[in-house]
Batch of 3 targets.
Target 1
Amino acid sequence: MRPAGFGLKVNGRSVELAASHEATLLHVLRNDLGLNGPKFGCGLGQCGACTVWVDGVAARACVIPAHGVAGREITTLEGLGSRERWHPVQQGFEDAQAAQCGYCLNGMVMQAAALLAREPNPSEARIRSELSGNLCRCGTHVEIVTAVQRAAMRMAKGADT
């Protein structure tokens, strides 16, 4: 099938792409735009490694047709914060040493940041519930919950998001 042209707004930047009708958002982000935050995990939208935001809502990029989000705002891990100024969730993960292998981190960070944007002071149970669809095989769940709690505290104290 012939590549179709369409535009996306990725991390605040407008981009024009030509991709086949079957190309997933994950494929376009990683292969065409070189954004490696979102990872390929299961390819079924079940593990969370590919989580991005579409118009501010956490979504699984491996199952979204790229052409289906034409003109919408896409935010990846690379667009959440910067090297100079991390998002409070990214800082929380660093502070809590909530990484082991790191494969789930993209999804955990993006899902947690989406939660805190909607709900600034979630309970531990709410954090666990929100992250339950993101698979972590390393066993850093306790540190991940601590990271999200630290991020919520930073944000409540006025740290920039």
Target 2
Amino acid sequence: MGFLKAGDVISGREGTAFMTIDGRNVPMFFLKNIEASIELVKTEVPVLGKRMNQQKVTGANGTGSMNIHKVTSEFMMIGINYLKTGIIPEVTIKVTNDDPNSKIGRQTVLLKEVLLDSIMIAKLDVESETLDEDVDFTFSDADPLETFAEPILG
């Protein structure tokens, strides 16, 4: 039986992320962490002759969260511009895992039609050494642009 080589485990610090806001590319140098998930919408299906109900997938929701260093006005400007114009820009986020020590390569995922759940426009915190911001979001589509290779077991 083979085993996973430790060098192929992906470091969470190795990678890049970019936002595209109405066609303008924004490097997400301020990112501390990001997660995106597809949550399956299920319907309970009772079946004659079975005591346990079954589940049927009937849809999906894309949700995500990120934590950022408060060193950018990009999100604040989205909120203020919406207040003034009523327009939300088209936003995509591209996340790449790229650990040069791993032999499984890179993985890149493009999140499409990203909408922020809430937008912090100002913050002070006398007990914090650095200002951070939690940003939850939804997305309506995703594409895998690159996928990891299968690890070679030792």
Target 3
Amino acid sequence: MRLVPLTPENLGKAVGITLRPEQEAFVAPVVHSIAEAYVNPTAWPRVVVDGDDVLAFIMGNFDPDHELEAFRAGIWRLSVAASAQGRGVGRFAVNALEEEARDRGVERISVLWERGEHGPEGFYLKLGFVPTGEQLFGEVVAFKDLSMRGKAFP
């Protein structure tokens, strides 16, 4: 698997990503995310590919001056094709965004999610995101500390 920028060559396959039907209520369609990236210069849209196959779309945001901490650095969208789920693709995409954040000097990233039976909460909790108890737009706000990676705890 590789993480690559969104390009004219992979755009069609990225837009064609389909989730499991029960997940569709929890994430905006990829085409909506791409439109949002087009008008937000701080957006960071990428796709996970395996050969010619587009397995997932992830869009981060890096806006260190944003008034809300939850929008300074983090995950805006993650869509993993139904056929690629359960293979570590989502984890790979999030890890890649974390590496990008570290390269930019970011020590904490955020993600927001809507709670629900088929929502992404369990996935993000397993990856180390910690809810703050705050909500924005009716969604859970969670952060992950990146500064401790590779450091020994006392």
